[in-house]
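Your task
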Amino acid sequence: MTEPRLTATMEDYLEAIYSISNEKRVVRVKNIAKKVGVKMPTVTNMLKSLSQKGFIDYEKHEFLELTNKGREVGKEIDRRHQIIRNFLTDILKVDSVVADAEACKMEHAMSSRTLDRLTQFIDFIQACPRTGPNWLELFDEYRLEGINRGKRLDRLKGFVRELNRQIKRLEAEEKV
């Protein structure tokens, strides 16, 4: 038996239900409608479909719950959304409202392999001695002003000094 195919809209609903269930004791149709930005009858139709596919337990005019399968999908879509949103806001300095909307679109289209690479890249940026917060500030300056050739030599000298400090600190830690 093959797994039921989910559309991006179905994933959005599962993500919304997952998010609401983490915030509130019960999930109601009106909460989902507000979060997804649609009318309640539209939510009801989607809930029937998700229930038939085994992603939620739902009876009309009752509370609903994610099944284990639905919770897994909702959690994964939420994780994808947060990774992409954080990359857009923290690294690329995209406005948070725009980043949230664009992350919602990208989370469905990006493969797991590409998302893993993006996560590794974010980790690298934060751990690499040549990058880090200062590097991100420099990227933001470049994004706004372009290359400032007059500052390049001073920055390279500063980078070498900081790199030498980090090397000495790591060597001292290894001796301990």
